[in-house]
Amino acid sequence: MLWLLLSPVKVCRKEHEVPRLKEGAQNRVQNWGKQLKMSSSLAQEVHLARRHEEILSQRSELLQQMETYLRDKKTKKTWQTQAADAARKRNAALLNDIEAAEKRLQERMHLLQHPDTVKLETLYWASIKESLPKWEEFLLGRAEVPIGFKTMKAAKQSINYSEEDSQK
């Protein structure tokens, strides 16, 4: 302390230096505050950059999922269209087959006679086979007309006469 009293210049100088030190300290504190602010800003910016990267990666993942979904959907639609076309062709072929079968059955129905007609025809041919031996001798010229034929002819004539009488 004595030396402070003896040298006033030094004291002033030291007093003058003290405010400079305070200013330097203040500058350092300010710089440190700026650095702190900058470091917090930098940390925040780094955090935001990382979050941005995460968002971009999620976006690209979602885009890939969407592309896959749309590709699968398009493939499914193509497959369904092909299946529908095949079903349409198959149904048309089946319909044609059914119509052809129906037509064949209708043609057969025209060829097939009614059961009553078939029965009468069978009885007729059975009657012919039964009476054929009687008529065979006549048809060969060896005998006269069989007995049942004359009576049938006479019966027809009597029917014709009775119809003429009823018309008059």
Helices and strands, with pairings:
Elements: H1 2-6, H2 8-111, H3 115-139, H4 147-167
Describe the structure.
There is one protein chain. The chain is mainly alpha-helical and 168 residues long. The protein has four helices and no strands. The chain is rod-shaped. The N terminus is likely disordered.
Structural class, judged by helices and strands? Answer: mainly alpha
Helix content: over 70%
Instruction: Give me the count of strands.
Output: 0
Characterize the largest beta sheet: strand count, sense, and whether it forms a barrel.
none
| Radius of gyration of CA atoms, rounded to a whole number | 64 Å
Bulk shape: rod-shaped
What is the end-to-end distance?
Answer: 183 Å
Number of helices: 4
H and E order? HHHH
Poorly predicted spans: 1-21
Mean pLDDT: 77
Amount of beta strand: under 5%
Core attributes:
mainly alpha, 168 residues, single chain, rod-shaped
Brief description of this entry?
With 168 residues, the protein is an all-alpha fold. The protein has helices spanning 2-6, 8-111, 115-139, 147-167.
